[in-house]
Amino acid sequence: MGHGWEGVVLKLFKGKDFKFTVTGAEQVTDRYHRVHFTDGGLLQAVGVHPTMWVRLWFDNAGKPHQRAYTLVDPDVEAGTFSMEFALHAGCASDWARTAQAGDTIDATVQGTDFVVPDPLPPRMFVIGDPASLPAINSLLGVAPKLPATIFFETTHDSDAELPLRRDPAHHELRTVPRKGDQLVAEVKASLPSLIGDPASTFVWVACDTKTTRTLTSYLLKELSVPKNRVKALGYWRAA
After folding, report:
1. Domain range for 150
2. I need a labelling partner for 221 at 20 to 30 A (CA). Which of 5, 39, 56, 115 fits?
3. Based on the structure, what is the number of domains in the chain?
């Protein structure tokens, strides 16, 4: 199956294509699935950085459909990594549920980037949800002892069982149920008293597109956090 017009656009923007092979899979919770891969030469070709993601291509009723997923535990020498899927209705989740050793899937690398904040902030602020959990774990691994406050939006009871790789000695977790704009309200109520000097802070946001845009605007316009001290990306669109 070709990649359609989206594939053509990614090629124009110098996207690089690879084919991954499944080596195994495991159910993490009833709504969260982990799939293991060999990388088809990806890591040696382009390297790896924290929160790195690639676009996977799925068959959606005969039409190509791409979604972005973060690499989990990439091993450049071995050429392996995993990906984690927050399960819901859709072709990507359907594929992950049934993936087994020997299956292959096309992937394109284009658009991913991350620069470690320099200087490091006295405390990092992370705002996300199960869809961005792999990236959160990757981010916390950049400087494991750097203090961090994590605002984590949850939807299901089993979200409490998700593998958040935090060190309680350094990482404060604030879970927020997904109810309307409760996450936005919690961040706005808490952050002004926590953030200190806006010029030296660092805030990472990866939620649904609407929430990410709202919080990014708030950080830049109302809290005066410099643009280069905010990294924000909408990971999914709420129905």
Report:
1. 124-232
2. 115
3. 2
